[in-house]
Q: What sequence folds into this?
């Protein structure tokens, strides 16, 4: 049995919100264990304002002092999980500052989360999996070149993508909407193999990622079944040729969004959000449908419009769509409406997620939505930077999986 | 014998003093004990389930963080049962049940608004203050009636 | 969801802290064992924990206090002793409540002193200091002295 990955928990409130066991369970599910760094009261009194942050809540003081013990190596951990109550301002400040502090002063992977009493182990699972992967598979994640013939499949909530790679070159692609998870994966793989002109038996290793990764992974007998946070980071820096140094990867997906601060291809801090559909690719799909254009036409349309001309009163997918409909009825142009929809999604991701990670340039956008030019433009404006969208960005998870899977050819 | 709420509700010193001078201390241990000894759905470590923050709505609205409402669900009933209270005003390092400053503010506020006999004092920092501390507690607890030790 | 079946139902557990020049935690535990009459007594670094039926624990606690009344302090505990949910070995670190005890333990000596010398009635009980308001005339003088 492998030694569990030890995840240090810095928190205030999960036991009293009734969700501590959900955290423990998510960790156990990915072969990790949660622990509470052991320090003494004198450490708390000495260190609780170590980052210059004076907080009143004793449990937050305890968390700060524990963070210092981890950073200084007095207590060993493989990863850090920081969580505080949703809607607690003091907790949010400490959560963000501790994440920054640990990120700056150590190599420990960190994920932060704000919970409610409704938080379940399921919502925490991908985050925990990413934490353990980073801790356990640094060698695998260090891979910068694809070798041999490998297949990567990204079974996403909206679409399924497959990529065949050979000697560091993409030679086959498959892309289609996810309907029946395994069936869609088979069809995507078939398309990719046909384009590559390769037989299934010639594939030397298979990697899967995305929501359907376990189902598809088992079906394809995959060598690597991996959550999308680490896989997409890897794919993004690989395709953008930014494998060394820092970067930020943003993936606005069909069901949730990922924002990842990456160092040498390995995620340092990251967030995953899936609370509101108004901040997802789904909203842009609905907008395109309402405007009577194909989703591929929405981006160029938005580039011709001005978001400020359309009042958007809500981030909600229902009320947001209503705002757009009202604007159209009041005489707004489809161009302005398309631009407003893109701006709304970008702004939500910016406000709700990008504040949770360190934005380091270059910023790379990936996933299907990165092909919507208007969205990338809106995000670039908000971040005041030129955003990189690498070629094949819509296949990011599949490329990352194919790349990492090649590590299994020689049994790494 | 009078039921005396202690604040911090985890305090060893106050718990001891109240019992020593003949009254019943009400603190967080009693609430935790009740949960630990009641059959329900497993929710370690404290047997506080996601239902508790919902029960906490009695004390704080839904926009108040779950940790505050969960703590209030545990501590609130003790507070309501109390016939008197002792509050240490500089309890800045009590953790766990007392680990959230917002909950602590709410508890003290609600206790003060119950208009029950309440003694507020600071932790003793030297022997002289220790003498005043014990004296104040002894007199306050004696004033509540009940037998003295 | 798993069903939770509690243990130790109907019992109470009390912490006994000793901070005394005359009796160590080990000695206290030994003396407590002698009079425990089958109650669960568990020695700890700070004293001991007693578990049993409420009235039996109350009786034993009264006797234990007698060993050194001004230096023995007692508090309720929610969990039975050695519960894995609170055990440091399982959590990785001390449960939060431990730090609360760590904070109060050094103050016990002042309380002990208070218990030893505190008369039944005092002239000056300790309360929260109330700062008097600044006299308005002094305030005016201060303001004037600051004007350029």
A:
């Amino acid at each position: 049995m492998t030694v569990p990955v030890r995840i240090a928990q810095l928190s205030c409130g999960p036991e009293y919100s009734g969700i501590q066991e959900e955290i423990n369970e998510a960790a156990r599910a990915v072969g990790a264990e949660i622990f509470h760094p052991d320090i003494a009261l004198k450490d708390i009194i000495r260190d609780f304002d170590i980052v210059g942050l004076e907080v009143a809540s004793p449990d937050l003081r305890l968390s700060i002092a524990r963070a210092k013990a981890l950073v200084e190596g007095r207590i060993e951990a493989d990863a850090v999980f920081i969580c505080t109550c949703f809607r607690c301002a003091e907790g949010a400040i400490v959560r963000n500052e501790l994440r920054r502090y640990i990120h700056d002063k150590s190599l420990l992977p960190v994920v932060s989360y704000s919970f409610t009493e409704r938080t379940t182990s399921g919502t925490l699972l991908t985050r925990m999996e990413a934490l353990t992967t980073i801790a356990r598979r640094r060698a695998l994640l260090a891979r910068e070149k694809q070798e041999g013939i490998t297949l990567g499949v990204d079974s996403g909530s909206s679409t399924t993508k497959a990529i065949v790679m050979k000697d560091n070159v993409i030679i086959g692609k498959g892309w289609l909407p996810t309907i029946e998870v395994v069936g869609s994966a088979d069809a995507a793989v078939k398309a990719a193999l046909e384009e590559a002109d390769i037989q299934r038996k010639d594939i030397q290793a298979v990697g899967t990622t995305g929501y359907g990764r376990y189902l598809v992974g088992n079906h394809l007998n995959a060598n690597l079944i991996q959550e999308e946070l680490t896989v997409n980071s890897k794919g993004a820096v690989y395709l953008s040729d930014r494998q060394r140094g820092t970067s930020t990867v943003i993936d606005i997906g069909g069901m949730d969004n990922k924002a990842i601060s990456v160092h040498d291809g390995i995620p340092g801090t990251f967030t995953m959000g899936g609370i509101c559909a108004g901040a997802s690719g789904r909203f842009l799909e609905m907008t395109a449908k309402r405007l009577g254009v194909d989703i591929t036409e929405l981006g160029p349309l938005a580039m011709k419009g001005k978001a400020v001309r359309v009042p958007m009163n809500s981030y909600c997918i229902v009320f947001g769509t209503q705002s757009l409909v009202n604007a159209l009825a009041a005489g707004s142009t489809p161009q302005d409406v398309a631009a407003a929809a893109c701006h709304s999604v970008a702004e939500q991701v910016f406000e709700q997620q990008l504040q949770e990670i360190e934005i380091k340039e270059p910023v790379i956008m990936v996933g299907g939505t990165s092909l919507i030019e208007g969205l990338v433009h809106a995000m670039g404006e908000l971040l005041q930077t030129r955003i990189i969208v690498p070629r094949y960005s819509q296949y990011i998870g599949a490329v990352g999986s194919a790349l990492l899977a090649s590590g299994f050819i020689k049994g790494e | 014998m009078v039921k005396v709420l202690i604040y911090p509700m985890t305090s060893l010193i106050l718990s001891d003093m109240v019992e020593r001078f003949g009254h019943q201390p009400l603190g967080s241990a009693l609430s935790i004990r009740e949960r630990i000894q009641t059959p329900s759905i497993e929710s370690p470590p404290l047997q506080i389930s996601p239902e508790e923050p919902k029960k906490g709505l009695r004390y704080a609205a839904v926009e108040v963080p779950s940790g505050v409402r969960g703590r209030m669900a545990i501590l609130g009933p003790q507070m309501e049962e109390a016939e008197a209270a002792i509050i240490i005003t500089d309890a800045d390092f009590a953790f766990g049940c007392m680990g959230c400053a917002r909950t602590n503010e709410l508890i003290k506020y609600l206790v003060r608004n119950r208009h029950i006999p309440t003694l507020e004092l600071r932790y003793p920092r030297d022997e002289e203050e220790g003498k005043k501390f014990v004296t104040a507690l002894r007199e306050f607890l004696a004033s509540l009636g009940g037998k003295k030790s | 969801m798993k069903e939770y079946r509690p243990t130790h139902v109907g019992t109470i557990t009390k912490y006994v802290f000793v901070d005394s020049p005359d009796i160590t935690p080990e000695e206290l535990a030994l003396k407590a064992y002698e009079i425990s009459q089958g109650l669960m007594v568990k020695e700890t670094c700070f004293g001991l924990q007693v578990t049993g039926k409420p009235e039996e624990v109350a009786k034993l606690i009264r006797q234990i206090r007698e060993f050194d009344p001004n230096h023995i302090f007692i508090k309720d505990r929610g969990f039975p002793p050695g519960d894995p949910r609170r055990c440091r070995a399982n959590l990785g670190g001390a449960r939060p409540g431990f730090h609360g005890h760590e904070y109060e333990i050094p103050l016990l000596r002042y309380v002990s002193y208070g218990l030893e010398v505190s008369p039944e009635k005092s002239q000056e009980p300790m309360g929260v200091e109330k700062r008097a308001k600044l006299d308005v005339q002094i305030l005016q003088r201060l303001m004037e002295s600051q004007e350029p």
Notes: Chain A has a mean pLDDT of 92. The longest helix of chain A spans residues 334-352. Residues 257 and 273 of chain A are 5 Å apart (CA to CA).
